[in-house]
Amino acid sequence: MKKFVLTSVFTAAIVAGTAGAAYASQYVAYEGPGFTGRSVVIDRCGVSNIPFNGSYKWYGDGQSGRMYNQPNAEGVAHFTLASNRNAEQRTPVGWKSIFIVC
To answer: For the chain, N or C: smaller number of CB within 10 Å?
Structure first.
């Protein structure tokens, strides 16, 4: 009986965690302008360095993103992407890091 209960609780926790992750804000950084080249999706809370600066898309789904012109979110935030709106820019950006507020 205990094994069944623990397994059920563990499974429920995984499902809840996965469902919650589906609704996180996402910053998609592209290598080239116009959303071309390689890309990376950044959607974890806290500080992330941005490897590509050719263009970006932001999908605001509950968390805001503070943008920094320095790596590791150092210095003053240059811009804040809204938690409830999408945004994009087809031309290069100077942002080097993001802090997703969760």
So the answer is: N
Amino acid at residue number 43: D
Domains of the chain: 24-101 (2.60.20.30)
Amino acid at residue number 38: R
The answer to whether residues 55 and 77 touch, using CB atoms and an 8 Å cutoff, is no
- Please tell me whether residue 36 adopts helix, strand or coil conformation: strand
pTM: 0.77
Residue range 84-101, pLDDT digits in tens? 999 999 999 999 999 999
User: β-pairing, 79-81 with 64-68?
Assistant: antiparallel
Structure tokens given for 34 = 């116009």
